[in-house]
Amino acid sequence: MAGEFDLIRDYFRDATVQRDDVALGIGDDCALLAVPAGKQLAVSMDTLVVGRHFVADVDPDSLGYKALAVNLSDLAAMGATPAWATLSVTLPDADAGWIKLFMAGFVELAKKHQLSLVGGDTTRGPLSITVQVHGFVEPAHSMRRNAARVGDLIYVSGQLGDAGLALLA
After folding, report:
1. Torsion angle, CA of 106/108/112/117, rounded to 10 degrees?
2. Which single residue of 37, 49, 61, 85 has CA 20 to 30 Å from 106?
3. Is 85 exposed, middle or buried (0-12, 13-18, 19+ CB in 10 A)?
4. pTM, entire model
5. Is beta strand 116-124 parallel, antiparallel or unpaired with respect to 81-91?
6. Pair 50, 126: CB distance under 8 Å
7. Residue boundaries of the structural domains of the chain
8. Per-residue pLDDT tens over the stretch 36-88
């Protein structure tokens, strides 16, 4: 397996957009980030595990896209604007072709939302992907579940049940 710093340099460090609110991104022990005045930081995280959330022979490009999409959906539900993400990948081996395709899907969606990848982790083991996203929301405009009322409009992105159906197939 390639070293962690090789993977960071080759596939993650410059993969997404550079933002002015990132003082220090990938490559150190922590990212240093600036939250705009008057905003709250919205944070969400999901883990996708092989055999549970996706099949072993999944298209890596699609998996990269999905791993970020499920998290961006959480930010949207809260009314937050995406800013940053961290990505932790557990891989059985460092297959450069697989990583390149995975990152292509991830980056496609990240760039669409001006989201910067600011850190994460790589390790060896059964395939799993953990993404944490961070976004900004004005305190008076966050959309919380306990604030929903009868008559409110509910929006769904994608088709309900598609993920479960795909796993069954």
Report:
1. 40
2. 37
3. buried
4. 0.80
5. parallel
6. yes
7. 4-135
8. 999 999 999 999 999 888 888 899 999 999 999 999 999 998 899 999 999 99
Task: Tell me how far apart the alpha carbons of residues 123 and 30 are, in angstroms, rounded to a whole number.
Answer: 17
Q: For residues 126 and 76, is the Cβ–Cβ distance under 8 A? A: no
The token pair that represents 103 in the structure block:
């990152």
- In CATH terms, 4-135 corresponds, of 2.40.10.10, 3.40.50.170, 3.30.1330.10, 1.20.1250.20, to 3.30.1330.10
Cα-only R_g, the chain: 17
**Hey, what are 12's tokens?**
């993650």
